[in-house]
Amino acid sequence: MDFPLQVDNLTKVYGRQRGIDGASFTVRPGRIVGLLGPNGSGKSTTLHCITGYHRLSSGGITIAGHPHDTAAAKNRLGFLPDDLPLPESLSGRELLMLHAHLRPGLDLAAAYDLFDVFDLADHLDKYVGDYSHGMKRKLQLVLATAHRPRLLVLDEPLRGLDPEAAILMNTVIERSAGAGNGVLIATHDLFAAERGCDEVVIVSEGRVVTQGAPAELLERHRAANLEALFLALTGIGTGLERKLQHLTHTLDPDRIDPVATEVSGGIS
Ligand SMILES: Nc1ncnc2c1ncn2[C@@H]1O[C@H](COP(=O)(O)OP(=O)(O)OP(=O)(O)O)[C@@H](O)[C@H]1O
């Protein structure tokens, strides 16, 4: 059986800047995989290569066994981006129709059911530009899932969602994996990743530094939790202590304010 996602030796360079360097990992059927890494480590680059937004510099990606840049792969992929590149002058319904045209497998009845669940049914004839941030995220989730993709790729899926929408989003993720599909989630939420992901892939400075089931990684690296493991493997922990001391000193209320001293000195 083909894996929902297979990434082999993926490299993407932007001019002289390396976005991701030789990354290999898989998302197996029924698995929720977290893609974790510090700012600038290569998560979005990886997602944008998978979804075909960026051309690969080298390496290969298959979605359900199909090369990622083919129509067969795109029809099996659902993507929730972190930013909101939506055509604001279309209504929600028009956008759905556009998607139905682009994704032959899109189940319109399922899409309308999902709109209902996410409280969007009464807003379908509004311009997308008039949706709130959370409404746009929900709309994008419906569009990403209504064709029942083999691979669901989500960039910070809970960002900007209210608690009810977050519970619904998590249910969509669990149901999708429960049906045997693969889910890849890029996130900075290490606590949610430790709780909700079957596996995690940690990237740092463009390279995969470890991957596996959270419990297995904690045991292998003798770490108390995923946050401690993340800080150790990405090297962030070393500089963090110094930055915290610096911050404490800078924000110390007893510290003499050089600007205030200078001003009052000038007045007297
Ligand atoms: N379009 C681009 N042109 C040039 N460099 C880029 C481009 N996109 C990303 N990069 C660089 O590639 C590296 C990886 O960036 P990327 O956006 O993939 O990181 P990220 O892990 O998603 O970060 P964040 O958590 O801040 O979103 C960074 O050094 C970034 O500056």
UniProtKB/TrEMBL annotation:
ABC transporter domain span: 5-230
Keyword Membrane included in the entry's annotation: no
Top-level EC class as recorded in UniProt: hydrolase
Gene3D superfamilies xrefs: P-loop containing nucleotide triphosphate hydrolases
Keywords annotated in UniProt: ATP-binding, Hydrolase, Nucleotide-binding, Transport
Record's keyword annotation contains Transport: yes
EC number(s) stated in the UniProt entry for this protein: 3.6.3.-
MF annotations from Gene Ontology: ATP binding; ATP hydrolysis activity
Domain of life: Bacteria
Protein name: Putative ABC transporter ATP-binding protein YxlF
Organism annotation: Micropruina glycogenica
Taxonomic lineage of the native organism: Bacteria, Bacillati, Actinomycetota, Actinomycetes, Propionibacteriales
Gene behind this protein: yxlF
